[in-house]
Fold each of these.
Amino acid sequence: QKEVEQNSGPLSVPEGAIASLNCTYSDRGSQSFFWYRQYSGKSPELIMFIYSNGDKEDGRFTAQLNKASQYVSLLIRDSQPSDSATYLCAVPSDSGGGADGLTFGKGTHLIIQP
Amino acid sequence: NAGVTQTPKFQVLKTGQSMTLQCAQDMNHNSMYWYRQDPGMGLRLIYYSASEGTTDKGEVPNGYNVSRLNKREFSLRLESAAPSQTSVYFCASGRDFPRADTQYFGPGTRLTVL
């Protein structure tokens, strides 16, 4: 059974600063990594995914992979109050990267202070 | 393009009652999933369907059954509801390219079992 660990927070960051969220994963063979954002009372929304071949930047969001230490980071630049949410990290449940579902961490609650 | 839709949005059941949660997607995805989300437990996979005509158990399948009615629709049935099944249920569908594990979630069903 794969495991994904996240610090539950809350992580409090001033508006305009960089928010840094981390998650660690148990299976060294994991090939893809996903970050979802979930506002209170809403469904998870996919914001970023990366594969084991490198980091990725999309607007204010950057996802970084450290395979040696088995953790994935999500950086949010110029943090806005609208970024306040719970961020979920996930990996595929199977090693083949097929359609067998995702294993999620419990999420980090991020608060951006105006 | 509605994405993933779920009905009902809210439901209250008494112990022992049965009900079916409905899910439909209009993104022409092959794979579909049912998750439950509980406080402190994160998202957990109940059942999934990698393609039309196939279904498989996830991490927490006990007490549930599923039907992949066609490519668009994937239903979750509780035959005899228990208080432990009080949860928020999310349906998701998986994009087939670049990988089937890129999932998009519906709005959720909040179920309370008394």
Note: Chain A touches chain B through 25 residues (CB under 8 Å).
Amino acid sequence: ETGVTQTPRHLVMGMTNKKSLKCEQHLGHNAMYWYKQSAKKPLELMFVYSLEERVENNSVPSRFSPECPNSSHLFLHLHTLQPEDSALYLCASSQVEGDYNEQFFGPGTRLTVL
Amino acid sequence: GQNIDQPTEMTATEGAIVQINCTYQTSGFNGLFWYQQHAGEAPTFLSYNVLDGLEEKGRFSSFLSRSKGYSYLLLKELQMKDSASYLCAVLDSNYQLIWGAGTKLIIKP
């Protein structure tokens, strides 16, 4: 248990659906992240929120829309996804102080787009 | 471009020692992390190196050479529960983590 929870753990959706992924951190951290993990590929950073402000977008398609209502919660809203978006979506949090940035990960949401 | 290279898969025997290598080319360097990820689970922190040399933590050790852009993770007295993927990540000049694709370690009895 890392102190970062994600729901749902598994999600199957059609290309016309709208769904949201939820992440909650109980560690008092000041930064939260969304990553995409595809098989045999490096973790892809999608979004970063620091002190509830988005600081990184990394050219993610607009069909992914993040929301960070407070420092403990992070959402990823999904709409009109493509089959190639099927992957494991990981949320992470960290306390950014100086140079050190150890990230704590949630268990991920396994997303399948039909 | 930024690049992290590590072997895709390695196999080792229970009780033995294994070394997982990681080479990197990044825009700046502010530290290197190793994470362990069991199948279907979250990555968990193993080690952090920012200075050259060896950091030892129980059965696991991590080594860094900044001049060579090279690190390794050394696992001793291997146990079946060490079967997992091991992810190397570098903190670049913008303090963003650049990730390798991970090394899947298979432990055989």
Note: The longest strand of chain A covers residues 18-25.
Amino acid sequence: DTGVSQDPRHKITKRGQNVTFRCDPISEHNRLYWYRQTLGQGPEFLTYFQNEAQLEKSRLLSDRFSAERPKGSFSTLEIQRTEQGDSAMYLCASSLWGKGGNQPQHFGDGTRLSIL
Amino acid sequence: SQQGEEDPQALSIQEGENATMNCSYKTSINNLQWYRQNSGRGLVHLILIRSNEREKHSGRLRVTLDTSKKSSSLLITASRAADTASYFCARRPISNFGNEKLTFGTGTRLTIIP
């Protein structure tokens, strides 16, 4: 169990640029979640996958955001035409669903995005 | 929007003292989880308590849940400097669709003074 890994840890970009983040979940976990956390706040749910299927998207996830989990393993989160308001920590979490429920989510260290 | 709040927002205590944080929520839950977050890092899972449980322990941590009052508390006994962090409660709502998405509060910032 190597934990949830996120890359990059930090990303600084100019407004209007596209960015992509990667998340590698714990290997046996079939569920993968993306959250966004702004300064002084708790994480807010963005979207989640069960295997390769994206099952729910928050209204926070505008059409500039897209997430994929093509092979049911790693996931990417892309933000197109970044805006100042996109500056935040993007957290990925994974869990094992279907083994009796009530399983905790395990979080990565996040990608901190700063928009100049 | 985030449902429920942690209380207090910030807490400073001397090393060795006990720290108590509270969490209130609005909608019925399947379970409630407590997480710790060190500055600039991800969240570390501490304890999960199911809606039919009233108390759970893990080392120096004790969590209680009162579903009638829609509240939970986290007690850290014999605090250490390493306990300095933000603590969040996260609610998993009752769902017919198996979605385990969590709803977090704004957290309690705990500072342990050596």
Note: Chain A touches chain B at residues 4, 6, 31, 33, 40-45, 48, 55-56, 91, 93, 95, 97, 101-110, 112 (CB under 8 Å).
Amino acid sequence: DAKTTQPPSMDCAEGRAANLPCNHSTISGNEYVYWYRQIHSQGPQYIIHGLKNNETNEMASLIITEDRKSSTLILPHATLRDTAVYYCIVRVATGNTGKLIFGQGTTLQVKP
Amino acid sequence: DAGVIQSPRHEVTEMGQEVTLRCKPISGHNSLFWYRQTMMRGLELLIYFNNNVPIDDSGMPEDRFSAKMPNASFSTLKIQPSEPRDSAVYFCASTGFKWDGYTFGSGTRLTVV
């Protein structure tokens, strides 16, 4: 699975959009981009995933560049409860099989 | 749906003792994963099962660690004998045929003294 690079930490003002970048320059054609987050002391939580088209759900939007070498997770109106570690993971989507390998992630601090 | 259920939530044990962590995956999910999280090493995948069969245990640190999944609704992770460096939060996760992401349990915080 391709490796990802994320900034170690970011701040965001409450109510503003949080834009979390991820670099995955060695991504292969059959690899998806997944985002998870981990709020303090809880298990990681699935947010969103995509292959090449932009995706949106009730939690966030995922913007993938045309060359697929980077992506951005957008939380449109960040709240204090969005303070967490956000993980960008690239892997082949084989349904429910295969590993999910976590890197160090980005610690997002939402400030009032 | 009660989610992935792990027990106990907290475990404190003395070095050398046997420790058993338990996990009940979401009903209908057929893949189960055990992770360990520490400040130094982050989230590490230890082992995962598909349809109750261990597929990859390359993350299991030593022979002191063993995992079983006797049926689709139950898995255990055992450490025998336990050591202080095993202190960590252990997470169990499951997923199913219908892709809805991996669902993680609340974790077991293990402290070996």
Note: The radius of gyration of chain B is 13 Å.
